[in-house]
Amino acid sequence: MxxxxxxxxxxxxxxxxxxxxxxxxxELGRSPNTSKAxxxxxxxxxxxxxxxxxxxxxxxxxxxxxxxxxxxRVAGLSSATIARRATSIRMFFAWATHTKLISxxxxxxxxxxxxxxxxxxxxxxxxxxxxxxxxxLRADDNSPTHIRDQAMLELLYATGIRVGELVGxxxxxxxxxxxxxxxxxxxxxxxVVPYGAIAEKTVEKYLxxxxxxxxxxxxxxxxxxxxRGKRIDQRVVRTMVHEVLSSLDGVPDLGPxxxxxxxxxxxxxxxxxxxxxxxxxxxxxxxxxQLYTHVSMDRLRAVFEQxxxxx
Length: 311
Known about the structure:
By secondary structure, the chain is mainly alpha-helical. It contains 14 helices and 3 strands. The radius of gyration is 23 Å and the shape is globular.
């Protein structure tokens, strides 16, 4: 740990940061996790510029910002992380300029590193089936947690929802008649996502057997509960997904977001319209959906051999 990490952000910087976070949460409707990331990014910058003698926002110029950006590279952070942090900083200074905290925006000339868009890793359809079969096998012991885990895995794969969206579900978000769930996504945007008959059966079993066994007076309306009866934590879900995946031979350990990638890809491979997939995933940009929905090499080869005159 270096000296800047041991220091504390000055009162002036802390005040500006707090006002910005309030704006992010109340005006933009960002989630607690997003605002926490903004705060962490700002603290990282402020500690750096303090070590260079800056005490007020107006002391920070493009030279300091570029120095901070260079320090991120030296620290070995990935291009994606650096780009995200730089975006946070540019957003903060644009806000600070708009609210007259500073007269000029020093971050307007800050170049955000380009991030190469990598194709997401996915499970093949047979691997996804093997994962669900393994979850069903675990649930055969009628353990409340194993039955719950099977329901969560089936719902993650059936809907492509994010793990944060899964743990945020309440019982009333389920519509068993229409087989849909109401999801509160990024930016507090609400959407309705369908799920299939298999996921329906596992969720029904969970509600009939597991949830009553796990529930306590503090459970509230939360759909999925942890071992202590409270709303299940994202970390518990991630650990469970890794645990079940690692029990299968030859299957990549992708975590919950890998199931989201896989669900999107398998929908496209099954003939789903890309805009329908965009709506299911809750993407504001179609370009983001296109990144998720790459096709398998086997399918690409099959399409080529069927369509190309020289195949």
